[in-house]
Design a protein that fits this description.
Layout: H1 7-20, E1 34-39, H2 53-69, E2 73-75, E3 79-80, H3 85-94, H4 98-115, E4 126-127, H5 131-146, E5 150-161, E6 166-168, E7 187-196, H6 202-207, H7 217-225, E8 227-237, E9 244-249, E10 260-263, H8 268-273, H9 276-290, H10 294-297, E11 306-314, E12 321-327, E13 338-341, H11 347-355, E14 364-365, E15 384-385, H12 387-391, H13 403-417, E16 420-426, E17 431-432, E18 445-451, E19 462-464, E20 470-471, H14 501-504, E21 505-508, E22 511-515, H15 523-526, H16 529-532, H17 545-551, E23 554-559, H18 566-581, E24 590-595, E25 599-600, E26 604-614, E27 619-622, E28 625-628, E29 634-639, E30 645-648, E31 651-654, E32 662-663, E33 669-680, E34 685-687, E35 693-695, E36 701-707, E37 712-715, E38 718-721, E39 728-732, H19 746-753, H20 755-764, E40 772-773, H21 776-794, E41 797-798, H22 806-824, H23 828-843, E42 848-849, H24 850-860, H25 865-874, H26 891-894, E43 898-905, E44 908-916, H27 921-928, H28 932-938, E45 943-949, E46 953-958
Parallel strand pairs: 1-2, 1-23, 3-4, 10-12, 23-24, 25-40, 41-42, 43-46
Antiparallel strand pairs: 5-6, 5-7, 7-17, 8-9, 8-11, 8-16, 10-13, 11-12, 14-15, 18-19, 18-20, 18-22, 21-22, 26-33, 26-36, 26-39, 27-28, 28-29, 29-33, 30-31, 32-33, 34-35, 35-36, 37-38, 38-39, 43-44, 45-46
């Protein structure tokens, strides 16, 4: 009898074999097709992999193993996106240099990936912090600089986070004005920054999406780029000759209804045109606005505020004098920093006008003549010009003219009067590229220094001429980070490298120079890593033309949808620049893109309690939990938005309970809650943006308590508590996180069930792109399936052709066809289902044909490669099956003798019948008329017509 299936023996054996024999080394062979399959390479965090990570990696590995067996040359590499803020924060927290922690984390990630049996070509491994890699990241920056695409901006308004000591992009700031990493307060500062002119490529980035095989990501990128066609309109300012307010609008047809103008608080004219009695108010308001992040200011859910300037603008289409206001929902860096307000036809303008009692004038009517009451709500759709539009316009508008034609008419008239012009704008902004932190690529730029001595010595006066940037020579690359003992960020924007005086300042030919002390963002290394993978050891270039031609472009790119916009947009931008430089031959790097769905934690059953707020001073930390120092009760903590608190002389209080919160030295605020005995049914619980819950009726915070399946009973569509049947329980899976305690470690599962079981289960959970909850019992079922695969392939296997019956042959070939088609379409779950049907059939045979067992080992190997290899060897294979030909199916054997079709009577489905696969209309009709259900619907009636679609449907028209 064969030995039992033991992955703990099989899996290390084959992992060692693959590594020693370089089985998955990527090589190009003449006349072979190629496939470049790429995973979004991970940031190597200290936590290592959780079970969500292998999902996408397993999918790409299946494709790669499948393609190799079909004779395709495959490039499947892996590397590490290792610079960035998380590594630096961890290093600061632990006092360990980020280089040490990064290398340690990489070793752990690599170990885990190898344990999962992924067929990466490890000889091509790259690390974005490696000097050989940094050199070429800096080389690309120099090309951007030389093309004028990398440039400095002085006094640039940025999101500055003092706690992190760095500038944050808008997407790195939460809606309540905190950093995504750490949740620290963010403020506005004006500093010197490097930016990349991605806006110069806006049109090409938009147009390039058209021919890509991408999912809904294309729509997200198009929205982010935000191309708008409209017009610039110039408003003169009464009493200020030469002053003009230019606004961009996509609805210039509504210009006759503009009743006020709004400026961003930072607009150059805001204070200049404010009347003396309004100057102080405008300045105060502008100061307050400038302390807020753009994300907070542009939050659509925020109540809109503003102050009048006392000045009036002149509407160019009718000469009306309309008030000029300042409001922080208008952002100075977006568009022109000014908007014309038409409250009758814009919801935001309407709310503002109602709040401040500003006029509302309707100039667009519904095309069908239906009345709309713009006093109650704005009418925002297109329509036709009404009588007011005509009477309030010097442009040749006619009543009833469609909005689209009005736009063209008004735009042409404005242009003829020198008061406006057609304009195309983009939401996309230039990429703020520099970071005021240590753990990133140094920017290869230096500046002249005027000094009366050695600027490295204390007390020496010097001036750095930032307006005269000098690029490093390419021969001087890479410029590496100095080894700093103190790499903590400061509370000012100078950055840690500014303290490395021996590195920062250098003398050349009797003159002093200063290096740039900002570093590149984490995005930099990930913008081009797919190119380095084609030629990772080249010291003469980032990649050679020959290596590029051999492998590019990327055929399949798989990664999380959280990178749908920025990483992919930035990488596409860099690639287009490289295309213009002539060093790459395609405008787009990634041909097909797939986002794997999120794997959530196991379903949790949650009961809600009304909460009592506890003063922050009573919260005491005990291990991983908070307790009330007075009562010993468990407490739930919640990081609070500043907007939810009252500041009373530096002490912050909860508004909902008038209780003081705990404020940390970093400026974070935490509220604490104890659970009361009062239960709240789940239908009343509403999840907030920060993951906490509130009572939908009272808006008060709720505390959650987890219960087990033994504590609940299914009643109808919901679960309720056994002890309180009227209390509905929330049964839901949540995103895996350390804070929720629902992270599943793959190391544990590999030890208990094997890597093949984990791989197979993650592919069997559902469609690759779907969001799926983890279920440990599911992996146990897959392990049992693999044991059955082992048993049918090692027990009672016969080589006698007489035992290979026709039914089994047909099922084997149908399975080959199904698995082949499903892998090509990335339908891995249904491919596994087909193999399960085959294994069940083979398990019911007295003897298993060797041909069927060999086909099964080949089919299962891309999904569960270790067991596939072992079974292939036991069935007589002499070497690895990694390059064995993929089994082909016989078309004659996959054809069904009998098929099922639907039968309709007068177009309504009435029955399904079994007919010979080659049955013609007459045969199908005869069989249908013998069916009892069809007899009921045709009895005593005449068949007037028969519609027959072979192999699909029969429709009997009776009367």
């Amino acid at each position: 009898m064969a030995e039992a299936y033991d992955p703990s023996v099989i899996e290390p054996k084959w992992q060692t074999y693959w590594e020693e024999n370089k089985t998955f080394r990527a090589e190009r062979r003449p006349g072979r097709p190629k496939k470049y399959v790429l995973d979004m390479f991970p940031y190597p965090s200290g936590a290592g992999l959780h079970v969500g990570h292998p999902e996408g990696y397993t999918a790409t590995d299946i494709v790669c193993r499948f393609e190799r067996m079909r004779g395709t040359d495959v490039l499947h590499p892996m590397g590490w996106d290792a610079f960035g803020l998380p590594a630096e924060q961890h290093a600061i927290k632990t006092g360990t240099h980020p280089r040490s922690t990064t290398l340690k984390n990489i070793d752990n990630f690599r170990r885990q990936l190898k344990m999962l049996g992924f067929s990466y070509d490890w000889e091509r491994e790259v690390d974005t912090t490696d000097p050989r890699y940094v050199r070429w990241t800096q080389w690309i920056f120099l090309q951007l600089f030389k093309k004028g695409l990398a440039f400095q901006q002085s006094n640039m308004p940025v999101n500055w986070c003092p706690a992190l000591g760095t500038v944050l992009a808008n997407d790195e700031v939460t809606a309540d004005g905190r950093s995504e990493v750490g949740g620290f307060p963010v403020e506005k500062l004006k500093i010197r920054q490097w930016s990349l002119k991605i806006t110069a490529y806006a049109d090409r980035l938009l147009e390039g999406l058209e021919n890509l095989d991408w999912p809904e990501t294309k729509a997200k990128q198009a929205h982010w780029i935000g191309r708008s066609e409209g017009a610039n309109v110039d408003f003169e300012v009464e009493g200020h000759p030469g002053a003009r307010i230019t606004v961009f609008t996509t609805r210039v047809d509504t210009l006759p209804g503009a009743t006020y103008v709004v400026l961003a608080p930072e607009h150059a004219l805001a204070l200049q045109i404010a009347t003396p009695e309004h100057q102080a108010e405008v300045k105060r308001y502008a100061d307050e606005a400038n302390a807020k992040s753009d994300v907070v200011r542009s939050d659509a859910t925020r109540a809109k505020t503003g102050v009048p300037t006392g000045a009036f603008a002149v509407n160019p289409i009718n000469g009306d004098k309309i008030p000029v206001w300042v409001a922080d929902y208008v952002i100075g860096s977006y568009g022109t920093g000014a908007v014309m307000a038409v409250p009758a036809h814009d919801e935001r303008d309407h709310a503002f006008a109602v709040k401040y009692a500003l006029p509302i004038v309707r100039v667009v009517a519904k095309a069908d003549g239906t009345e709309v009451d713009v006093a109650k709500a704005a009418y925002c759709d297109d329509g036709v010009a009404n009588a007011d539009a005509v009477s309030r316009s010097k442009a040749p508008i006619e009543q009833g003219m469609p909005s689209e034609k009005v736009r063209r008419t008004v735009t042409d008239w404005l242009a003829s009067q020198g008061r406006g012009s057609s304009k195309i704008t983009f939401k996309l902004r230039d990429w703020v590229f520099s970071r005021q932190r240590y753990w990133g690529e140094p920017i290869p730029i230096y500046f002249p220094v005027t000094t009366d001595g050695d600027p490295r010595k204390p007390g020496t006066k010097y001036e750095i001429h930032y307006d005269q940037p000098i690029p490093l020579e390419e021969s001087e690359l890479p410029l590496l980070l100095p080894d700093l003992e103190d790499f903590k960020p400061g509370t000012d924007p100078a950055g840690p490298l500014a303290r490395a005086l021996d590195w920062r300042f250098f003398e050349r030919e009797g003159k002093w120079f200063a290096r740039e002390t900002n570093t590149m963002p984490q995005w930099a290394g990930s913008c081009w890593y797919y190119l380095r993978f084609v030629d990772p050891t080249n010291d003469e270039a980032g990649w050679s033309p020959e290596a590029y031609d051999a492998w590019m472009p990327v055929d399949l790119y798989v990664g999380g949808s959280e990178h749908a916009v920025l990483h992919l947009l930035y990488a596409r931008f860099w690639h287009k620049v490289l295309f213009d430089l002539g060093v790459v031959k395609h405008e787009e790097p990634f041909q097909k893109l797939v986002h794997q769905g999120l794997i959530l934690g196991e379903v949790e059953h949650i009961v809600f309690h009304e909460a009592t707020a506890v003063p922050g001073s009573r919260a005491k930390r005990e291990g991983d939990r908070w307790v009330d120092a007075e009562t010993g009760a468990d407490l739930t903590d919640r990081r609070m938005r500043s907007t939810d608190l009252d500041n009373r002389g530096g002490a912050f209080y909860l508004r909902e309970a008038d209780v003081p919160v705990l404020t940390t030295p970093d400026g974070e605020h935490f509220a604490f809650y104890a659970a009361s005995e009062t239960l709240v049914s789940a239908e009343r619980a509403k999840e907030r943006d920060d993951g906490s819950f509130e009572d939908a009726k009272t808006k008060k915070t709720l505390v959650i308590r987890k219960v087990t399946e033994q504590d609940i009973t299914k009643r109808g569509a919901h679960f309720t508590l056994n002890d309180s049947p009227e209390t509905q329980v929330l049964s839901q899976a949540f995103k895996m996180s350390k804070s929720r305690g629902n992270v599943v470690n793959p190391d544990v599962l590999i030890k208990s069930h094997g890597a093949d079981s984990l791989r197979l289960y993650e592919m069997f959970m559902g469609p690759l792109e779907a969001v799926k909850p983890w279920q440990t019992s599911g992996i146990e079922g897959v392990r049992r399936f693999l044991e059955r695969v082992w048993n049918v392939s090692t027990t009672n296997v016969t080589g006698d052709p007489a035992d290979y019956d026709v039914e089994t042959q047909k099922l084997v070939h149908k399975t080959i066809k199904k698995v082949t088609e499903d892998v090509q379409a990335l339908r891995f779950n249904t491919a596994i289902s087909a193999m399960m049907i085959l294994v069940k059939h083979l398990g019911g045979l007295p003897k298993v044909p060797a041909g069927a067992a060999r086909a099964l080992s080949l089919l299962v190997s891309p999904f569960a490669p270790h067991i596939g290899e072992e079974l292939w060897q036991q069935l007589g294979g002499k070497t690895s099956l990694a390059y064995e030909p993929w089994p082909a199916f016989d078309p004659a054997l996959v054809k069904d003798d009998v098929i099922e079709i639907g039968v309709q009577v007068n177009g309504k489905a009435r029955a399904s019948i079994q007919i010979p696969a080659d049955a013609d209309e007459a045969a199908a009709k005869a069989i249908a008329l013998e069916d009892p259900k069809i007899k009921d619907f045709t009895a005593g009636k005449t068949i007037k017509k028969v519609i027959f679609v072979k192999g699909r449907i029969l429709n009997l028209i009776v009367g």
